[in-house]
Design brief:
3-stranded mixed sheet
């Protein structure tokens, strides 16, 4: 098969490269951006993060994920002395949380909570809407 381009009656206006870039930039600004929070933090978690920061003289806590567990990945929480270049910063009522930039794909939209069970212990708990599977013990998940 051979194709022949037919002449068209419409002529495109001549545009400079900078005009094309400006036009594309204006179009991109009109595209609605996602308003999904990187990490939602409950009041109980906020209070606990502030307590941990004060007790350990830490700048923040860092949240991320590691390959671990029977389902794929699990959440990690560590003290943070400084912000890494790719970290996203979440500030909730004075509690500063760095979300590891490499873990964003697995954390986006999650909620961090803190549960205190008295004598039975206490722990941070994540609710991840992106999880497609969870292990039986609840320590790992798949996205």
């Amino acid at each position: 098969f051979f194709f022949r381009l037919a002449p068209t009656s419409c002529a495109l206006p001549a545009m400079s490269l900078s005009a094309i870039v400006r036009t594309a930039g204006n179009a991109a600004r009109r595209i609605p951006k996602s308003k999904k929070a990187v990490l939602n933090v409950t009041k109980a978690a906020t209070d606990q993060v502030k307590r941990i920061m004060a007790e350990n003289q830490a700048e923040a806590i860092r949240v991320g994920v590691n390959r671990h567990g029977c389902t794929g990945v699990s959440f990690t929480i560590d003290l943070a002395k400084d912000k890494q270049p790719m970290d996203e910063v979440v500030i909730a009522d004075g509690a500063k949380i760095y979300v590891d930039g490499k873990s964003l794909f697995a954390i986006l939209g999650s909620t961090l909570d803190f549960e205190d069970h008295g004598d039975l212990g206490s722990q941070f708990v994540f609710d991840n809407p992106l999880a497609t599977a969870k292990c039986g013990c609840g320590k790992s998940f798949a996205v």
